[in-house]
Amino acid sequence: MKKFLLTATIAIAGLATLVPASQASEDRRRFDYRNDRRDRQERWTDFRQLRAEVYQLDLLFSRVESQMHFGGFRQTRWEYSRLVRDRQHLNFELQQRPLNRLRIHSLIDRMRDQLRELEVRLRARPHRSFYR
């Protein structure tokens, strides 16, 4: 009888220690779920921002390309071909996981600046006299 009483007491004490531990793990799981959800939202927001920037970059590419049809010098065409290669590299970077956001943002900013410079250069054509 004493052994049974001792075993029952130990079992009850063991269960009493397990209940708060399971409740703590439940709270921890709930907290981890909230953090995971917030992390996923931040990643999704950042990915949406990247997509929007790439879309704006595509619009710039199409404007510059449409102006290239009206004439462009060799150097301008060469710089544009370099930017097309950088665009392919950007698409490759966007396929990689995990995303290196700083590298992608810096690549987009650099390409945007160079495209705007090309666009201005194509718009402001030098005055050529046809009567020499």
Total number of strands:
0
Shape: rod-shaped
The portion of residues assigned to helices is over 70%
Portion in beta strands: under 5%
Distance between the termini: 122 Å
Low-confidence region ranges: none
Run of helices and strands: HHH
Largest sheet: none
Verbal overview:
This protein is an all-alpha fold. The chain has three helices and no strands. It has helices at 2-68, 74-95, 101-123. It starts with a helix and ends in a 9-residue tail after the last helix. 3% of the residues are buried. The model has no long low-confidence stretch (mean pLDDT 79).
Q: What characteristics describe this protein?
A:
0% strand, mainly alpha, single chain, 85% helix, 132 residues
Write the layout of secondary structure elements.
Blueprint: H1 2-68, H2 74-95, H3 101-123
Helix pairs in contact: 1-3, 2-3
